[in-house]
Amino acid sequence: MEQKPKIIVDVERMKHPFTGLYFYCKNLAVNLEKYHSDKFDFYFFTYPKVKFPGFLKKINRTHIDKFYLTKPKKYRLWHATWQDTKYIPQNKMKFVYTIHDLNFLYTDKPEYKKKKLLQSVQQKIDRADAITVISHFVKQDIEKHLDLKGKTVHVIYNGVEVNEYPHFDSPRYRPASKFIFTVGTVLYKKHFHVLPRLLVNNDYELIIGGIHPDKSYIDMIWKEAEKYGVKDRVYLPGSLSDEEKYWYTKHCEAFVFPSISEGFGLPPIEAMRLGKPVFLSTYTSLPEVGGDKAYYFKNFEPEHMQQVLKEGLEDYYTRQRKDEIIQWSRRFSWQEATKQYVEVYQKTLGLPVNTKPVSEERKKVTAIIPTLNEQRNIAEAIDQVNWADEILVIDSFSKDKTVEIARKMGAKVLQRNFDNYSSQKNYAIEQARHDWIFILDADERLSEDLKLEIIDKLHNIGEEKAFWIPRQNYFMGKKVRFSGWQNDKVIRLFNKNFAKYNGRLVHEEIICKKETGHLKSELRHYTYKNYDDYINKVKKYSLLKAQELYAKNVKPGVFYKYIKPAYRFLYHYFINFGFLDGKTGWTIAKISAFGMRERYNKLKQMYERQKT
Prior knowledge:
The chain contains 17 helices and 25 strands. By secondary structure, it is an alpha/beta fold. α6 crosses α9 (322-329). The N and C termini lie far apart (71 Å).
């Protein structure tokens, strides 16, 4: 079998989180692997300390790479994903060069600096075997200002993926009235300082999300807000979580983005994906991205901007434009973007062009959540698996609102008297509509990387029929690094035709008849809300374990009553370095020993009842 060509994609800009380049690099990497790992062996060049999806192959940047970058001949192509990159291969490796914008030309930088920046881009164009840009506006810009030496420029629009959190409802600031929203790196080029004037003669609030690298510009925004007497209705929360960003976008009256310097403009398309009315400037690439589905500020005069907002909202609601706006946004997809990048890679390497995704559709999956009185956790747990094709809640007749909440959120609820964990889950697995199953306890959460890795794996299933997932445990909110919990792993993603639970009453495990694989990203287990919760669960597990031992005719004795509990304490606290977890490690060791003693006390009671 012919070996797949190895290529390196530079995603070093991910060292700056919450920026457009960060999300561009991350989405490019994840989706190249998801859709085209059958064609290329992808390696991603990045900053060593960056938060990077663990299931992707990573090459750490070294200090010398900036001055002299050379990689082994086995790597056939280097893709630089940013026009100002310092990392350019010195050997004969093929070089694909992506330019996002030449927006420095439209700033007040001195002419000598602009000339120097243009020369830097020109040097990389001269080195490039292929050039890509992210909009036709950028293509026209480089054709006007640079010498392409007859090289073809490929326009590849950025993809857009919006993570939805429909049941998230706790933003750090909840507007008291209707509001308009924007998000981005809060710099002058975004022109956010013109937005407070939109609040004149109405009751809107204004939320400007994004990191604040320039304090003087923040002061400028506040001065503008004060000038128009609307300072009490302007809020700058700084960086937003994905959930908060989704909430503000979903609930805003309008999304406004008056930037004067964009190579593409991801935030407006993300807002359009949710069907929101979007108001843009007419500068750089924004008219191309928004098309006739957006509304435009032709200048930044207060009266004009206020009129555009008022008339645009009237048009949006009168013509009911939500669906057509969503449809427009769908033309910007990472599946399409990575397809076009792969075509460039193949042409550059002289390979036959084959851009069919490795899998047009991923394997369908049923997510199963076992519950008993989980009203506090169930909504968030269901949100964690909203990517699944079916969600089953297997409930043991909860007395609280667990079932009500689950049904309201669209999950299918099965209710069954609890006998043991294995049979409860196996019953739900039998009811699942799809072969592939993902099990999630209500107190567990997926890291973003784990979600991406699962989806990637469902697009690229090999011979494996089940997958081990590492699990990071938290005790009363505190991360447990030792105490015997550090190497925890569980099978949670599996094909039900080849795997099922082993029948144990407690601490049940999946038994798989075929090959198993390993995922790299972690599942987070927020076990035990407080000390009493831990004690109660230990007692419950002790009873089930005692029943299991009773069925095996294990007899309690001095060894089980005293020596095993003592060993259990030593095991967690000393042998597995629980003392390094501080008070948490002591508590885990103590209650684990208590649970062991409780288990054999209950076993003893069973034998005593047998005698009577």
